[in-house]
Amino acid sequence: MPSLPLTRLACIxxxxxxxxxxxxxxxxxxxxxxxxxxxxxxxxxxTSSTEETTTESSESETxxxxxxxxxxxxxxxxxxxxxxxxxxxxxxxxxxxxxxxxETSLKGSYDCSGPTVGQLQFFASKSMAEDTAEVLTGxxxxxxxxxxDEKLVGWSMLGKTAVITVVDKxxxxxxxxxxxxxxxxxxxxxxxxGLADSYSEPTAExxxxxxxx
Length: 213
Prior knowledge:
Strand content: 15-25%
CATH topology of the domain at 92-212: Protein Transport Mog1p, Chain A
Number of strands: 7
Mean pLDDT: 74
Distance between the termini: 58 Å
Structural class: alpha+beta
Helix content: 25-40%
CATH class of the domain at 92-212: Alpha Beta
Shape: globular
Low-confidence stretches: 1-29, 67-71, 202-213
Number of helices: 5
């Protein structure tokens, strides 16, 4: 936060206007010497005002720095909670890149962001995990990139937007990210984030489900 502006001081003359009376007693006498001027009350007041303003500015900066530090510590705490709770969905490198996580109004869900990984959403919900898995394996607009007994990775198209999804089927947890398909290839994005190691062919169960659709 920038410092508060210092009060601009007007230049105050230090010299006092003195009246000098010349006594003409004789042509040989010299005038009395003028007294040395001293600081005016106005100068003292202005200096005091400057010191008070500087002190207030320093106190304001200290308070702001303390608040920012507490906020950063709070963000780190939430990021650590997300890392621990959703570790099965993504590699450590993804969580290392997260700078901020905020718990949303939906219980067990978080909005997170990082400079490399972008915006991500995490959900801890068994019912959502089941529904999301059905969408990935059941819709023709969805593509499965990797599927195991524990995890499902792929994306679904919503117009020109691809919703990248990772589902932990056993723990009931979901990671999602929305990307513009005309900007990012969703499959390459999945590999870039480390969400899948390699492409695996859909299982027989998945193929049958898609044919029914």
